[in-house]
Amino acid sequence: MGWYVFALVDDAPRGRIGNGLTGPLTVRRIGNAFAVVERRADVPPADFGSLERHQRIVSRLAARVPAILPVRFGTLLDTETLDELLAERDEEIAEAFDAVRGRVQFTWRRAGATARTRREPDGTPRETVAGSGATYLRRAAAASRPVPPPPWRTVRAKTAALVAAERYQPGSASVPDTLYHLLDRGNARGYATIAAGLVRANPALTITGPWPPFAFAPEVL
Questions:
Q1: Could you tell me the sign of the dihedral formed by the alpha carbons of 62, 64, 66, 71, in that order?
Q2: Most CB contacts within 10 A, which of 77, 142, 193, 197?
Q3: pTM of the predicted model as reported, rounded to 2 decimal places
């Protein structure tokens, strides 16, 4: 039996934490973090129901702790591996807790926007064209930190005063253009009011939240 990990938290959750996907949740302290886990023999199926339950459990935990780092769906580890991984990344986890403590995430999506592959005149994808090492590194760095394109300008300008961190994910054939904002919990109501006005003005936009900081948690497991 392994440990199925839902999240790392910076303090023991207040009150009863209830059940996981099929059994009771357990809180294990490892270094300066607490892992919220469930005993399981296998990884749950990656269907909509399991994904939705996983998200609900993380959201429930987030309301009971100052800082939470959601862990990706399907993370099943034995005791030794879990302990070693968290011990090795204790400093990284502490920094991540500092970044998300007391904060929530809002998620914007823009309908009809998909990523376009830039191509050379002969049709070759630009990312595959040979070039200098410096050019390759610049492109790789830009790809890891994509900048929101001009259609997001109004959203970013109207919400900038309330946003602590931002992450942009270009659209694809299956996922729309997405903009994630991290902000203090105390600013959530004012942010939602601004967002509602932006959605009314632009029907292509949708927004959900507040959520736990799914998009701002480093992959430490």
A1: negative
A2: 77
A3: 0.81
